[in-house]
Specification:
This protein has 254 residues and is mainly beta. It is 13% helix and 45% strand. Strand 5 and strand 6 form a beta hairpin. It is globular and about 60 Å long.
């Protein structure tokens, strides 16, 4: 249960008010990786804050949970996630560039640590920037750094890189180079993280996913998270209230 709560707290995504799904382009003509990367970043949302409401479903070999969530993001600084069940706040997480913290009411416990635990569960090295990128429909890695091969696969532009025994693939639709899927695999450790974005919608000048599907495969099984987006607002003054209730017990997770 501890892993369920932490994963739902951290890997929860949303979008803005309901809008029509964008028509996406199909890749037909080869492009250099640099051209796809440039177009991808040109169409990403810019913001100072985002306030989001979402619904999340989690499933692994033993557990299945349906929860609602509220997400507050202050760009490059902090992410606050509140998870609710039947309207009652059951857990909170505060994520910063240096620390991951959360508490949950069911067991009266709290956790404070770095990104190593989450990275281990999802099968890839994570940090604040990567989590934030995942939440706004951006390639997890900074694609302007490093070298990628480009090809067309399933009518999507596919950029690939293999480095330090890690294989990475990023798939983009053709019209705006919005990311549709990203796969990070460590074959020697039998770990794969797959993130898919079924559709996008336009909100003002920004394009954001309407949902995200995450699958983490590892030697002990699979974790699946599906998040659908209900509402959001941008560039408001937000507070980030987080305080562990008195009497909670600190836990250490392997």
């Amino acid at each position: 249960m501890r892993k369920v709560i932490l994963l739902l707290l951290i890997v929860t995504l949303a979008s803005c008010k309901s809008k029509a799904v964008l028509a996406e382009g199909k890749a037909a003509t080869s492009k250099e990786a640099s051209a796809v990367i440039q177009k991808h970043y040109a169409n990403l949302p810019d913001f100072s804050t985002v306030y989001i409401k979402a619904a999340a479903r989690y499933k692994d070999n033993k557990n299945s949970q349906n929860l609602s969530a509220e997400i507050r993001i202050e760009k490059d600084k902090q992410i606050l996630v509140s998870v609710r069940f039947l309207g009652i706040t059951m857990a909170k997480a505060l994520i910063t560039p240096t620390q991951v913290r959360y508490y949950e009411k069911i067991n009266g416990e709290y956790f404070e640590g770095d990104y190593s635990t989450l990275s281990k569960w999802l099968g890839t090295d994570l940090d604040y920037a990567k989590v934030q990128n995942l939440l706004v429909g951006r390639a997890i890695d900074d694609l302007t750094v490093g070298s990628y091969t480009s090809e067309i696969e399933d009518k999507l532009y596919k950029l690939s890189q293999t480095q330090n025994r890690t294989e990475k693939s990023f798939f983009f639709e053709a019209a705006r180079a919005l990311i549709k899927k990203q796969i990070i695999s460590q074959p020697t450790q039998d770990r794969t993280l797959t993130v898919e974005y079924p559709n996008y919608a336009q909100y003002g000048e920004a394009y954001l996913p309407t949902a995200v599907q995450i699958q983490a495969a590892h030697p002990k099984g699979k974790n699946n998270i599906t998040v659908e987006y209900n509402s959001a607002s941008f560039n408001e003054d937000l507070s980030f209230p987080y305080a562990v209730p008195e009497g909670y017990t600190r836990i250490y997770i392997d």
